[in-house]
Amino acid sequence: MSKKSRILIYIIFVVLIFIGFLVFFIIKNQIGTDNNAASENKKLQVATTLFPLYDFAKNIGQDKADVFLILPPGVEPHSFDPKPGDLIFINNADIFIYTGKFMEPWAEDILGSIKNENLLVVDASGGINLISLVAEGQSENTTPIDPHIWLDFDNDKTIVDSIATAFAEKDPKNKSFYEKNAKEYKMKLAELDEKYASSLSYCKSKKIIYAGHYAFGYLAKRYGLEYIAAQGISPDAEPTINDLINLVNQIESSNIKYVFYEELASPKIAEMLSKETGAKLLFLNPAANISKEQLESGATFISIMESNLKNLKIGLEYNKEYNQ
Ligand SMILES: [Zn+2]
Questions:
Q1: H or E stretch including 259?
Q2: I need a labelling partner for 192 at 20 to 30 A (CA). Which of 15, 112, 166, 185 fits?
Q3: Are residues 273 and 142 in the same domain?
Q4: 35 C-alpha vs ligand 1 centroid, how far in Å?
């Protein structure tokens, strides 16, 4: 190789290294800019399991959070299994909010399997006094825990606070924004609670006969009502013939005029009870999940609970003269 060729190769080599460095720095700079833009404008990514948690999180986060409801509309929550897409979302989320291990045993399995060190997990049952389903002849510590904690407005206030605390932890610069939204939402819950307490005190009947699963234990306890459900805390177990005979007897002996039913579980039980006793049927929504139509029409946890109160007033025979 001539001396001239060696110099040429050397020059080409140096130029290539220079171009290489130039390209490296341009790309590095570009990625850096994108990352900064993303972290400045990025909304909190929040995964929630049930509708009430989804609605609370949306009210607290508003335009600063993307809130995702894992449970698809219309799906019965007790028999739900998450899809791979849900796991991908949770893997990339900032916050995961679930009702607790008694409502979503699957959530604990997911949390054990995903590798997202950034994830802040909110167990909504934290700080809440859980009650058990106590049937006749059973003691409280041998009976299952009732997981329907959102059907007590005081519990909801505790959940709202837990969510606001998590949002503030992940996004400290907007802490006061989340706190203000939580405070406003808790005021709405307090108003609804007062409406329930006052309306139900004017009702002649104090007994809710529910043709669905044992979902309204917290609500009944809060307002001093008796609650009798056809099924246990999960709607997967069908009632026995004896359970049904017992319900028919309760309806007849207490002169119950209305039986409540739920949409997602078994309407057959409600229809049978109505046919057998002549009691009319009224819808009472446990609010764990809502239909696609309801979601699209903008239904909220508060609007669902307002509809429930309307039907409770009819079913329990609200009358101003019955004030107690
Ligand atoms: Zn339930």
A1: strand 258-261
A2: 166
A3: no
A4: 42
